[in-house]
Amino acid sequence: MRGEGVDNKGNRWSWAWDGPPDGKMHPFKDNSGQQSVRKEGNVLIRRAEFSDGSSFDARATVSADGNTSVEETTWKSKDSKEIKSKSL
Length: 88
Known about the structure:
By secondary structure, the protein is mostly beta strands. The protein has one domain (2-87). Helix content is 0%, strand content 57%. It is built from no helices and eight strands. It has strands at 2-6, 12-16, 26-27, 33-40, 43-50, 55-62, 69-76, 82-87. Strands 3-4-5-6-7-8 form a six-stranded antiparallel sheet, with no helix packed on it. It has a two-stranded antiparallel ribbon with strand order 1-2.
């Protein structure tokens, strides 16, 4: 798995992760933290914990035709502030 994007300040970000969808934590390729992934039906559930103390929980649902994915994520900063996001 990998992801790329731009934050609200215009800074580009990216990540890469390779691990089985077994629900256990496995490290990101850059050792910035770890992530678990598991699948429940057509929902992909992810949890990540980063070395700076921040984390996220995400649920991605794939459409019946397999062409669209919607991910709802709750990010938690190291000082416990939460941000919720939804991505298509």
